[in-house]
Amino acid sequence: QVQLVESGGGLVQAGGSLRLSCAASGRTFSNFYMGWFRQAPGKEREFVATTWWSGDVTFYADSVKGRFTISRDNAENTVYLQMNSLKSEDTAVYYCAASSGRLRGAITARARYDYWGQGTQVTVSS
Question: Rounded to whole angstroms, how far apart are CA atoms 51 and 53?
């Protein structure tokens, strides 16, 4: 059974940094895209970043480019999201997601991801 467990969320002041982690278990995640999405109160869940299993292909939402960095450690089955220069509009629940390739759609779309974590809250105070 696939499990994705996020950690590292919390309260930070604007301009600060946080690093989120996603520990994956239950199978081998080679040939998976591993991504991060976020959902703010009253808003749809939106794409943040994703990376191919080799780590050499990454995509970012325009809103986080230059501030967030996604990376993965396949030996540890862990994906990270380093978030710098945080803004109040980054406040949201952040979800880790895995795409096996079984589902269709753009790699930035929610529908492409077949496994999800429970989420971790990130709150940025201004």
Answer: 6
Confidence of residue 54 (pLDDT cuts 50, 70, 90): confident
- Listed residue (61, 104, 111) closest to 83, CA to CA: 61
Mean pLDDT of the 1-8 span: 94
CB 62 within 8 A of CB 2: no
Give the C-alpha separation, 62 to 25, whole Å: 30
Side-chain-side CA neighbours of 85 within 13 Å: the count stands at 7
Query: Burial level of 101, CB count in 10 A (0-12/13-18/19+)?
Result: exposed
Tell me if 20 sits within 8 A of 72, measured CB to CB: no
